[in-house]
Design a protein that fits this description.
This protein is an alpha/beta fold. It has one domain: Rossmann fold (3-Layer(aba) Sandwich). 31% of the residues lie in helices and 26% in strands. The protein contains 10 helices and 12 strands. β10 and β11 form a beta hairpin. The radius of gyration is 18 Å and the shape is globular. The two termini are 21 Å apart.
Length: 301
């Protein structure tokens, strides 16, 4: 089934080239179907890139999805035009009275900052509090996961001595968990972050459960007891070239980055990397939508 997105969103043509079923607003209005209403709080600096990555995964679901885009009005991004934000994005004041089946909170490259030092932390806290009553299930990604664990459960992060970057092998803790349905016992997922959370801090919270982890990359997926909140510390939405672009960006900035682990063939950055985690990423999003959103949300929002 398709995702419904604004007619003029730049991601639309890219997704259609990839044979992702996209339905524009004009066609969707003619159908008598109750689509899932999913809101994406996009905190990433390259918003159009992240839009495409997440819409690609949402579009692989058999469910029809009506996607909305949210940004923080207290922060002015440098890499996205004001025109794009004005045309396609809303702020919390615009959606405060609305109900949504699902919310995705993306990562942000600000792991080294204290949460309270983030200029939109107050607004983000307001959005996360709002989600408790207005959203059926929220999926937090990377920094969004750490921020969510801090806000909801007072679990703080710590700064890693070196950036965690690469494609890592993960295992699942309980194959009977619904969001892990169909997962291989071992699978690959991307990580890209300077901060982390401690496993022992998560285990201290009875209402949280670790669903998947990696020997090298640590805890990967955590769920609240009722499935209202899912936390993923990696970047399942990344495409084949995202880590490559980040590596080259850090090189250009003179940061002397380490090669992403298990990413470039033969550890040669001149060789095009391969996409080896899309099946896991598609399954993660599809399972979240089906088991924690579609099966739990009321028909009348």
């Amino acid at each position: 089934m398709p995702i419904k997105i604004p007619d003029l969103l730049p991601a639309k043509s890219k997704l259609q080239e990839e044979n992702i079923f996209v339905m524009d607003e004009s066609r969707a209005f003619k159908q008598d179907i109750r689509p899932l209403k999913i809101l994406i709080l996009n905190l990433m600096p390259l918003k159009e890139q992240t839009e495409t990555q997440l819409l690609r995964l949402l579009g692989n679901s058999p469910l029809q999805i009506d996607v909305g885009l949210l940004h923080t009005s207290t922060h002015t991004p440098r890499n996205t035009s004001a025109e794009h934000l004005s045309q396609f994005y809303k702020s919390i004041k615009d959606v405060r009275e609305n109900k949504y089946d699902g919310l995705i909170i993306t990562g942000a490259p600000i792991e080294k900052l204290d949460y309270e030092a983030v200029n939109y932390w107050k607004e983000l806290s307001e959005i996360m509090e709002w989600s408790k009553t207005n959203v059926t299930s929220t999926l937090h990604i990377c920094w969004g996961a750490m921020a969510g664990l801090y806000y909801h459960y007072d679990i703080d992060k710590f700064i890693r001595p070196h950036k965690l970057s690469g494609i890592y092998t993960h295992t699942i803790t309980d194959p009977k968990e619904k969001i892990l349905s169909g997962f291989d016992e071992e699978y690959l997922a991307p990580h890209s972050r300077h901060a982390d959370i401690k496993r022992e801090d998560i285990l201290k919270v009875p209402s949280l459960k670790i669903l998947s982890e990696s020997e090298e990359a640590g805890v990967y997926m955590i769920a609240a007891e009722n499935g209202r909140q899912i936390f993923v510390t990696g970047h399942p939405e990344y495409d084949a070239y995202t880590l490559q672009k980040e590596f080259k960006r850090d090189l250009d900035q003179g940061l002397n980055p380490q090669l992403p682990i298990n990413y470039f063939p033969n550890n040669n950055p001149d060789i095009t990397p391969r996409l080896r985690w899309r099946s896991h990423s598609n399954m993660l999003i599809s399972n979240w939508l089906n088991y924690y959103v579609y099966q739990e949300t009321p028909y009348e929002l």
